Amino acid sequence: LQALRRRKAAAGAEGHGSPFIFTTPNGTLLDRNNVRRRHFAEVCKREEITGLRPHDLRHTMTSHAIAAGLSPIAVAQRLGHGSTRRTLDQYGHAMAGQQKEAAAVLERRLGPRRRAVPQNRR
């Protein structure tokens, strides 16, 4: 957040009047192909990462968010999906590990209640 705040302040000082944080020098929106070639590819090269696409970062973030238990509604909104169905159809595999946890929670909540056995019945 601090880096984004600094960038937002710098963007405001650039004088182009654009409300966007990341723009070209004259304030227009960035072209994704230029960003990929000029910036993303450079970072990957410097860090010796091969075969990574910017969209892979989106998939990674989404899989981790779902696996961490974030609400599918919040994840769908973050991705710009119109419904959670699209998100869950594409990323439901990330929830597989949550089945044991869900069963345990339901068992604790709905499982049989154990009563204390009266002393004289032991």
Task: Explain the overall architecture.
The protein is 57% helix and 0% strand. Helix 4 (72-79) crosses helix 5. The chain has 122 residues and is mainly α. The mean pLDDT is 85.
SSE topology:
Blueprint: H1 2-13, H2 32-46, H3 54-67, H4 72-79, H5 84-91, H6 98-110
Helix pairs in contact: 4-5
Strands, total number: 0
Main sheet characteristics: none
Query: Pairing-aware structural class of the strands and helices?
Result: mainly alpha
Order of helices and strands: HHHHHH
Query: What's the average pLDDT?
Result: 85
Q: Give the N-to-C terminal Cα separation.
A: 62 Å
Strand content: under 5%
As a percent range, the share of helical residues equals 55-70%
- What is the radius of gyration? 24 Å
Annotation field: number of helices = 6
Overall, the morphology is elongated
Low-confidence stretches: none
